[in-house]
Amino acid sequence: MAVEDLRKSDVMSNLLDGLEQGKDIGHYGKFVFATVARHFLEPEQVVEYLAKAPDTDERDARGLLDQVQSRDYNAPRREKLVDYQSQQEFRFMDPDNPDSGNLYRDLQFPDDVYEDISEYHEQRAESNQG
After folding, report:
1. pTM flag (> 0.85)
2. What's the CA gap between 130 and 21, in Å, rounded?
3. Is residue 129 scored above 80 in pLDDT?
């Protein structure tokens, strides 16, 4: 998997462009990038991209990636992306376009991501029944 795969998503393409241009993509932009990119790029590549943000050095980038990996965060749903974007200046999606920001439609994540999501929903349904 590679950067080309990430560019299938408007969100990830905008975040990649921002990082490549050395722009401040915001706290949530970096979080979303790390959460998604870790499934498509080698850890060193994720760190390299994150460290292009003006307020992020390599140490900060590694810390964010470690946090995302250790907590095994899944990519956020579109609604969460809209919320994140509303809390910062950098725009990574069009909140008025219902097709913008659907990471699970635009990208093919590894199978274990979908299995984790299914397990979560099954556990949630079981706890709501009891």
Report:
1. yes
2. 51
3. no
